[in-house]
Fold this sequence. Notes:
This protein has 289 residues and is α+β, with helices and mostly antiparallel strands. It folds into 3 domains: 2-107, no CATH class; 121-130 and 234-264, no CATH class; 137-229, Roll (Chitinase A, domain 3), CATH 3.10.50. It has helices at residues 2-20, 42-50, 54-62, 64-83, 90-112, 121-130, 151-162, 167-174, 196-203, 236-266, 273-276, 280-288, and strands at residues 31-35, 38-41, 140-148, 185-190, 214-216, 219-229.
Amino acid sequence: MKNSLGHFCALIMIVALLLSSGCGSKKEEVVVATIGDEKVTLTDFNERIDNLPARYRVAVRRRKQEYMNDLINDILLYQEAVRKNLHKDEEVQKVIVEARKKILIARLLKDEVDSAINITPEEMEDFYNSNRDRYMTPEILRVSHILVPTYEQAEIITKELDGGVSFEAVARAKSVDPTAQQGGDVGYFPKGQLMTEFDNACSQLEVGQISGPVKTKLGYHIIKLTDRKPPELRPIEQVSQDVEARLRIKKRQVIFNELLERLRGETVIVINEEVMAPSAGAAESEKEQ
C-alpha cells in the first residue's frame, strides 16, 4: 500500500512540476487562472496544449474548460502533497531520482540518436526493392456459392449444375444464404479472409469452375470461382511511410549501439563477478524449472 501511494504521489508531483514550469516567469502575460499562489498564463496554457500528443490536441482545444479543470485539479493535488511534505518522503525522493534519470536518458537519446537518423530516397528505394514480398497485395478472389443444410441437397444441386442448369438461377431458388438474392455472388475478398474450408476450396478452383459440396459450420456449399486477381506489388508511394519507419528502426538500433559502445569504451567498468554469480539455491531453482 505504501509503495503504491508513494509511486502515485511521485507521479502526481512530476506531472504538476511539468505543468507548473514557466508559470509566473513571463511578464505582462494574461492570467487565465490563479490557484492559490500559482498563476497559469494564457501563453503557458496554450503551450501545454501544443505539447500534447497530436491525437489529443484538436479535442482539447474544443474543450478548453475541461482541460483547465484537469489542470487545476493537478495543481491542487500537487500543492496538497507539498503541504503534507510528501516531496520530502524518502520513497518519493527515490522515485523522483529514477524518473529524472529516465527523462534525461530520453532527452539524450532524442539528441544523440533520433536526431542523427537520416534516410535518403536511395535507401528507401533499396529497402523497397529488397523487401518486395512485404509490399505485395494478397490474391483477390471473387466467388458465388449455394448454401444448403444437408449433404444430400448439395449432391442433388451438384448434379443439376453438371447437367447445365444456371448456377445463378439455382442459387436464387435454393440457397439459404442471404447472397441468394444476388445469384450467390459473394463479391471480391482477399485470399485467407473467409472460413478455412471455404477459402481452401476457392483456392483450388480455376475461373469458371464449380466445386463439389464443401462442408463448413454453416452447412454445405457449392462454390463457383468467377474471378481471380493475382498479387500485385504496391507502388513505393503507397508504402513509403512503412518503408521509412522500418529503416528508422534499423538505423536507430545501429546508432544506439554505437553510442553505447563509445560510452563503454570511454568508461572504466568493473563488475564483481563473484557477487553477480547465481547462488546455489538459485541455480537449483533454475534446474527445476
